[in-house]
Automatic annotation (TrEMBL):
Its cofactor is Zn(2+). GO terms for biological process: proteolysis. The chain crosses the membrane at residues 136-159, 165-185, 236-257, 269-287, 335-361. This is Site-2 protease family protein. Residues 180-257 form the Peptidase M50 domain. It comes from the Bacteria. Belongs to the peptidase M50B family. The lineage of its organism: Bacteria, Bacillati, Actinomycetota, Actinomycetes, Kitasatosporales. Its main location: membrane. It comes from Streptomyces carpaticus.
Amino acid sequence: MADYRPALRDGVLLSEPLLHGTRTVHLVRHPGSGQSFEIGVREHFLLARMDGRRTLGDLGAAYAEEYGRRLGDANWRQLLALLGTKGLLADAPEPATAPPPDAARPANRLLRGSLPLVADADATAARLHRAVRPLLTARCVLPLLGLIAAMQLTLALHLGALLDGAATVLGHPVLLAAVFALLWLSTALHELAHGVVARHHGGTVSAIGLRWRLPMVIMYCTVDNYRFLATRWRRIQIAAAGAVMNALFLLPFFLWWLLAPASGTKDALAGLLFLGSLHAFTMLIPLPPLDGYTIVSQAAGATALATSSRAHLAATLRRDRTALAGYPRRARRVYAAYTALAATTVAALLAVLAALVHTLLTR
């Protein structure tokens, strides 16, 4: 076995190290089925070096130097059998249990389902990316972010007028339908922005379509290899792109609102700006399944952050020293910080909601 030169199948992707509970794991993605698997740090050490040039003897020597022990033949057989069963080795057959992509999709029903809108989502994302690529450079993005910040500051200083506008919109069905249609368009652009920025950073878009959970119908854009892109910063940009797009969508209406004389139109624009800004900020709330949660998870280098934080909090409240001892120091810091962030966020949301309801009812 020492002379065997294992190689991973072309297209197999490995993620960076991620916190998951008490462990540090890596994700492995099969290129054909799209299925992802978790592996430990030591397994990743070996897989990352399976390039078809190194023999098992070379890998074993590197492993022994790194971890202070050699793997026996039984260990190699177990690892290679697992990789072969998963179809991750270049000379292994495709796994028989891997379902085709369409078979895993649940059948559409009246109340819920999904519908692809394009045959080749990645080609569509590539065309959109070519059209807006000049706007994705720092020299364009930074001024746009500055305009968004100036817009939100101005709106915050005119919160009373925005609340009056929101009350006007909510009290007129025709205005409400028009604002709802514009916000739906903003949501569609939100999803496309995720795909375009992912394409900009080397991501692959697998699907663009409509998903309905009646009475709601929304667009979706699926990025296959999002979690395997090169750096956290790129993944954070992709996650934040949707909320930035929601804010950019409001800029023309903001200028219109600034220039419009006092009238019903100005009130309607104020309502749109309030509800649109609320929508954009909602996407950045650091709670699952929102984009803000994805941003925080990527910044922390963690997977299943909310679940792991709940388990850590439960062990802390029980004062279970045995369970807590299994958490590395970094994991304890990350989970405690996210627990505090989530609790603060929920308290702030409840306070803001109560203030908004009180204001709308008393104005």
